[in-house]
Design a protein that fits this description.
β9 and β10 form a beta hairpin. The strands form 4 sheets. This protein has a 7-stranded mixed sheet with strand order 5-4-13-14-15-12-16, with helices on both faces. It has a 5-stranded parallel sheet with strand order 7-2-1-11-17. Strands 8-9-10 form a 3-stranded antiparallel sheet, with no helix packed on it. It is of the alpha/beta class. The protein contains 13 helices and 17 strands. 43% of the residues are buried. Bound molecules: flavin-adenine dinucleotide (FAD). Flavin-adenine dinucleotide (FAD) binds next to α1, β2, α10 and α11. The site of flavin-adenine dinucleotide has 30 residues, from α1, β2, α10 and α11.
Amino acid sequence: MTTNKTPRIAIIGAGPAGLTLARILQTRSIATTVFERESHPDERPQGGSLDLHPEAGQLAVHLAGLDEQFRAVARYEDQGMRLLAKQGQILLENRPDQETGDRPEVDRTELRAILLDSLDTGVVRWGWDLRSVRQAHDKTYELLFEHGLSETFDLVVGADGAWSRVRPLLSSATPAYAGVTYIQFGLDDVDQQHPELALLVGHGSMFALADDKGLIAQRNGHGHIRVYAALRVPETWVSASGFDAGHPEMARTWLLDQFSDWDQSLLALIQESNDRFEVRSLYMLPVGHTWDFRAGVTLLGDAAHLMSPFGGEGVNLAMLDAVDLACALSNHQNLDDAVRSYEQTMFPRAQTAARGADQGLRMAIAPDAATSVPAFFRQQMSSGPV
Ligand SMILES: Cc1cc2nc3c(=O)[nH]c(=O)nc-3n(C[C@H](O)[C@H](O)[C@H](O)COP(=O)(O)OP(=O)(O)OC[C@H]3O[C@@H](n4cnc5c(N)ncnc54)[C@H](O)[C@@H]3O)c2cc1C
């Protein structure tokens, strides 16, 4: 980017999108400030395992100059996928190995750590929770934070996830409930403590889908398995029907009740779980969400195109957005051209992925999922890796 004065760039959110953008720009000598509302990097667990695709997440890692660091934490051995019937038998299995599989898994916490370690000291400001953004007369933007401080920037990049506080500057869209609620729980030290469940889930992800429900289990690093019990229910149904994440025994009993006619091998995921339960309703922005160009503001990742996780694309899109915006900012003469160019590339890509994620969720948590999902994957596998 060549301008008369160095533009001040603020990135809101130290998730995969914001940190990838900051890192790639840093390698191109473009300074940014990342504002993150969490008070420190370990304030909350960062979530499960993510598979990075070669043309998206892995490309971003490469442009960030972090190939070696990524290889050190990536799990090439965990790229498997299996579908089970609710009666417990395997319907379909895909087991790419280290040679054929090109979508290694990485724990979100470890991905965030390598990105954070690569940034210069002081780039990320922890405990800065954006409250609102105000445009000044000179077309700059004043960021107002919950602790009362404010700062002014030339470009504000909203990488602040589903409930973005930057998005209202560009769009009136808000996330809508996607019709499915996840109840998340996990099992620790599975190879030693739960060897049969380690075998059931395998090295990768396991899906058992039927009757508008699902048990989805995912091998994470450090011997952990993360499980989502998925239910197609109205938005407030889970809490209204008595589920209480704070009482693990009651939570387990409640869940076993929901899956009472499922095979014992699958129910063991619930019976042997640890005590950390969490309710996660799924939300999505409208498929094809866009906005009119506005100088000095843009969005990346979930802030721009929140979608259900059933496309398996969320983090890959977030990191690819960061690649495209970073390249645009380093290649264009001014901020406006860079932002326009980035948005024109990102909008159609996000629309395609959001449509796929929407269809995936409708198909997977559905009355006939036990037959439609295996048929879909068989067709996919015959035309290439899934
Ligand atoms: C249950 C579930 C499972 C998923 N599984 C997968 C998967 O297997 N594969 C996949 O690719 N994707 C998956 N996703 C999606 C993926 O997690 C997201 O697409 C991805 O994290 C988006 O990254 P992001 O950086 O845009 O946003 P986020 O990861 O949400 O990061 C946003 C950051 O902004 C910060 N922030 C928010 N508000 C403010 C504020 N006001 N001020 C300052 N900071 C703020 C947040 O604290 C956070 O650090 C899943 C999502 C869910 C809900």
